[in-house]
Structure formats: C-alpha cells, structure tokens
Specification:
By secondary structure, the protein is mainly α. Helix content is 68%, strand content 0%. The chain contains 14 helices and no strands.
Length: 317
C-alpha cells in the first residue's frame, strides 16, 4: 500500500544493514561498501517492482481505497511512490549503519523494527481509524463497488479477502520478494558471525526465518495493535466520536480525532517502552535472538574476586 510502503521500505533497508552489521560497523563510507550495492539492487529490482505491480493491478486497494483507478492518480504520486520505495530503504540502511558505528546495537535493531511497527499501525488504524477495514476490502470481489466504512467486514469480505485477487497478487509478490530477502540477511549475518570472535553462533536458515517472522508478526504487529487500541480509546475519551460518522460527515469531531494521535501515540509509546522495549526487556532479548550481538568476554575468576592477574601482580611487585 502506498501509505505504508515508506515505512516498510525503511524497515527493509534497516534489516539488511543490521544483518550485515559486523561488515559495516567499522566502515567510514557505508555507501562505498559492496553491501550497499546489493541493498540498492534489492530495493530497486526486487522490492520496488512488487509495489508497482500492486498499484497497477489494484490501484484502489494499494492506495487504501483512496483512488478509484490508476489513471485517476496524479503523476507526482506515482513517481513519488516509486522513488520513496528506494530512498526510504536507503535511509533505513544509513540510519542503522550510523547507530551500529556508534555501538548502539539495540537501537539499530529497534530502528528496523520501527519501520514495521509504523507499517502495521497504518494498516490497522490508518488516518481515520479504519485502516483494517480498508485493508480487508477488495472491490473486485463486489463488482467494482467503491469502499465505504464497514465494507471490509461485510458478508463475503473479512477473512474471504485472503482468497481475493488482491491476495493472489500479494502471494505472488511474497514468492518473489521473501526468499531473496531472507537469503541475503541470513548469509550476511552468518558471514559476519563466522569472521568475528566472541560472537554467538549463527542460526540455521529456517530457524533464522522463524525468528525474524516472530519479531515482525509477534513484536511489531502486536505492539502496533496496542498502539492502535490506545489511540482509539484516547479519541473516544476526547469525544472524537464514530469513525464512520466522520467519513459521512454526519457526526464525530475531527479535531479531537487528530488530537488523539498526538496524545495517544506518546502515551502508547511510554507504555510499550516500560512494558516491552526497555533495556533488558522482551524486545531486546528477542531482537538479539534474531541478530545475535557480540558477546562480552566473561570475567576471569581472579578479576571477579578482586585479585590481580599473575602478570599484573609480578609487575606490581
């Protein structure tokens, strides 16, 4: 979807950079490294075409039901969509490299995950509280009838979306995209682990895929859902009213709906940081399970007991 792909592209670029973290963290010029050339090829030849395919075949769904047809979209939107699918991935790559270079391994991991979290929040809640409803509606299943609030949950929609023509295109995109992405990340992470001392053993390919999927669909999707719920109920407390009523112009308070994002998102972020994302918490352990960090050398018994090593004792004497 046009509205979410900027976040997804950022997460992809960050993921690839973290996977190659040991190869990149000591580089002064990340854009001169061969890894970047491969990231750029992935973004332009693998990732970007998947979005353009969806935009051409399913323009209404790809724009979250905002456009009626491909020809109804302004040229700048189409060009911007194609360009940002690449530039946002580059930004995610560069930001991750910068954090890795500064030794902020956990923040580098959070950096790519934030891209997925933003993507899922838009899919679930969107700009009007109806993101999930827009996502689940394929107008091809209903004779081309345009989306209206509740259409994604009507009889024939909902779970049936996953057998729709849009879903078939999504599956085709996944077959093209995911094997290349996962192999690239696994190989780079494994190569870095094999070349470095004091590194946790790299997982096999399928365990690595499972761990990455758990981080994406468990951690990012789960916490995005929590954020969406917090924003929704914040809006209700502020008097934002019905999402459908605001769409039809028959009620609700648009101002309070906008305010609910500025109040609800910081509050949700605080709750999620304290409960999930704080240092040493669930998120850090899971992300370090996906992309194992360098292990700190264990202190020797002598140093832990306060005694000087033998060589140091000789020098002191």
């Amino acid at each position: 979807m046009v509205e979410v792909d900027v976040f997804w592209a950022y997460g992809l670029g960050g993921s690839l950079a973290v996977a190659a973290g040991r190869q990149l963290k000591n580089e002064e010029k990340p854009f001169d490294h061969p890894i970047f050339s491969r990231v750029l090829l992935f973004l332009s030849l693998v990732w970007a075409p998947t979005g353009m395919l969806l935009l051409l075949k399913h323009p209404s769904w790809e724009t979250m039901q905002a456009a009626d047809s491909f020809m109804s979209m302004p040229p700048w939107l189409i060009l911007g969509f194609g360009i940002t699918n690449i530039t946002q991935g580059i930004l995610g790559y560069w930001t991750t490299w910068m954090l890795l270079r500064r030794g902020r391994t956990y923040l580098a991991n959070l950096n790519w995950l934030v891209g997925y979290l933003g993507m899922f929040f838009i899919l679930l809640y969107g700009w009007d509280g109806l993101g999930y409803d827009r996502f689940l509606y394929d107008r091809d299943m209903f004779g081309g009838v345009a989306w209206t609030p509740g259409a994604g949950l009507q009889p024939g929609a909902g779970w049936n979306f996953f057998t729709s023509s849009v879903a078939m295109t999504l599956y085709l995109d996944a077959i093209y995209l995911l094997p290349i992405l996962m192999v690239m990340m696994w190989r780079w992470q494994r190569a870095g682990a094999g070349a470095a001392a004091g590194v946790m053993r790299s997982a096999g390919f399928w365990p690595f895929c499972g761990r990455y999927a758990l981080a994406v669909f468990g951690l990012a999707l789960g916490t995005a859902a929590v954020a969406a719920i917090v924003v929704h109920y914040t809006g209700q407390l502020l008097g934002a009213g019905s999402h459908a009523a605001r769409f039809y112009g028959t009620g609700g308070n648009t101002t309070m709906h906008v305010v609910s994002y500025f109040v609800g998102l910081p509050f949700a972020s605080l709750l999620l940081w304290l409960g999930v994302y704080r240092r040493g918490g669930i998120a850090e352990r899971l992300l370090h399970w996906v992309f194992p960090p360098d292990q700190q050398p264990a202190p020797s018994p002598a140093s832990s007991s306060g005694a000087l090593p033998e060589s140091a004792a000789q020098v002191q004497s």
